[in-house]
TrEMBL record:
Belongs to the short-chain dehydrogenases/reductases (SDR) family. ERG27 subfamily. GO terms for cellular component: endoplasmic reticulum membrane; lipid droplet; mitochondrial outer membrane. GO terms for biological process: steroid biosynthetic process. It comes from Malassezia globosa (strain ATCC MYA-4612 / CBS 7966). Residues 90-153 are annotated as: Disordered. Residues 105-135 have a biased composition (Low complexity). InterPro entries: Ergosterol_Biosynth_ERG27, NAD(P)-bd_dom_sf. One of its GO terms (molecular function) is 3-beta-hydroxysteroid 3-dehydrogenase (NADP+) activity. The keyword Glycoprotein does not apply. The chain crosses the membrane at residues 347-372. This is 3-keto sterol reductase. It comes from the Eukaryota.
Length: 383
């Protein structure tokens, strides 16, 4: 049976872990809620082209193996909650948190309703009677289901699909350090040995050499242009010119070049997908991707004078790479080539900046994100 096989880089925390959680929740449904068009007033949903009734394989490509194991445990806990939550409860209340007790009613028939084995004779005729009784009971249960309301049968079918998905899903970890070409190629070899194909590669990992915040500039920007301060802040301080062990621009390599090499190495697996829908290479975009910060004469962002904002430059390069890859894929004569996309996560509270600002600032940031949800035009969702 075909199953989605998905690779996510930087999946041990933050946005990457959130993407993995969302994938499990959405693929466990026959009609994923995220498939609805946002500009459709009715928000009609559709079935996924990547049918996953037998589960999926989720590969977490991470540098920190300890955090990766913690992420696996968290995702397995999510699968357990998905598999044990009643469909009606899920529709009304959403997925219960790990701290909540699952109090929804059981949907399975009680084994107490079956006749006791001690009341049956051990003769062959009794064995036939038992078989007949079991067959009649199964037929009665089937008839009862068919006679039950349509919405109840639909909920039962969705629950069966979700339970089967959760039971068959496999979550694994592969080591990946994007700052090393050797590690990147080794990761591709490991994946090639593990799976026969890939349906999705989500290129999410990344970072920058953050130094801190220009607090004077931040205060002025918040007071004079709050919208810019919370969407396109110019007060973040970062270092430019760092090199990796491969003597390449470090920020450039972990954001753009390393991911490109990984996707190129795994291209044969993308082309081998058994699904009719082409496999997908999905780059995580950024609101801060800025053409003005990109300089062709310094694509690796090694010159602090030319490229003082390497994060913005390299995230813009990710968009260029996605466009270039998709043009190459669609113009290729090779059959079943993948497609490449850039997916924008919006404004999300992640830990990418947590190492350079006080913990209280992270708490306040999340608090503000919750408060702005009061607005009817708020787009803040991931926390």
């Amino acid at each position: 049976m075909n199953r989605p096989i998905i690779l996510v880089t930087g999946a041990n925390a933050g946005l990457g872990l959130g993407v993995c959680e969302r994938l499990l929740i959405q693929l466990s449904s026959t009609m994923p809620s995220d498939s609805g068009m946002l500009d459709d007033p009715k928000h009609n949903v559709a079935s996924t082209p990547f049918h996953a009734s037998e589960g999926c394989t989720l590969l977490l490509a991470c540098r920190n193996q300890a955090k990766a194991r913690e992420a696996v445990a968290q995702l397995e806990s999510l699968l357990h909650r998905l598999s044990t939550t009643d469909d009606e409860y899920l529709e009304k209340h959403g997925l219960p948190s790990p701290a909540q007790k699952n109090t929804q009613p059981a949907t399975a028939s009680s084994p107490a309703s079956a006749p006791a084995a001690s009341t049956l004779s051990s003769t062959s005729s009794s064995a036939i009677d038992m078989s007949s009784t079991s067959s009649l009971r199964h037929r009665d249960m089937t008839t009862s289901r068919l006679n039950s309301p349509l919405d109840q049968r639909t909920r039962e079918a969705r629950k069966m699909y979700r339970t089967s998905f959760c039971k068959g899903t496999v979550i694994d970890v592969v080591p990946l350090d994007l700052a090393s070409l050797e590690s990147t190629k080794a990761c591709a070899r490991t994946i090639t040995a593990k799976v026969p194909y890939l349906t999705h590669i989500i290129l999410n990992a990344g970072g920058a050499a953050w130094l801190g915040v220009d607090w004077l500039k931040a205060t002025w920007e918040i007071l004079t242009n709050l919208h810019k301060a919370v969407t396109l802040p110019s007060f973040k301080l970062q270092r430019s010119g760092d090199k990796s062990s491969d003597d390449l621009g470090w920020v450039w390599q972990i954001n753009a070049a390393g991911h490109y090499v990984l996707a190129k190495e795994l291209e044969p697996l993308l082309c081998a997908s058994p699904y009719a829908t082409p496999s997908r290479v999905i780059w995580t975009g950024s609101l801060e991707a800025n053409e003005a910060d990109f300089h062709a004469q310094d694509i690796q962002c090694l010159d602090p004078q030319t490229s003082p904002r390497p994060y913005e430059s390299t995230k813009y390069q990710c968009e260029l790479l996605a466009l270039g890859m998709d043009q190459r894929y669609t113009s290729s004569t090779q059959p079943h080539m993948p497609r490449a996309y850039t997916a924008h996560p919006g404004i999300v509270a992640t830990s990418i900046f947590s190492g350079v600002i006080p913990a209280i600032m992270m708490v306040l940031m999340k608090l503000v994100f919750y408060l702005v949800r009061i607005s009817p035009t708020c787009l803040f969702d991931g926390l």
